[in-house]
Amino acid sequence: MSVPSAYNEASDIRHPRTGHRLSDMPVHDPFVLADARSGTYYLYSGASPTLNGVDRHGVLVYKSTDLDEWEGPYAVFAVPDGVWAHPQHGAWAPEVHEYGGKYYLFVTLHNEERLLEGEPVQGYAKHWRGTATAVGDTPEGPFELLKPDSPVVPAERMTLDGTLYVDEAGAPWMVYCHEWIQTLDGTIEAVRLTEDLSSAAGEPTLLLRASSAPWLGSAPAADTPLAPEAPAGEAAVYVTDGCQLYRTSNGSLVMLWSSYEQGSYVQTIARSTSGRLEGPWEQLDPLVRGDSGHGMLFRAFDGRLLLILHRPFSMPESRGYLYEMEDTGDTFRVVG
Question: Which DSSP letter does residue 288 get?
Answer without folding.
Answer: B
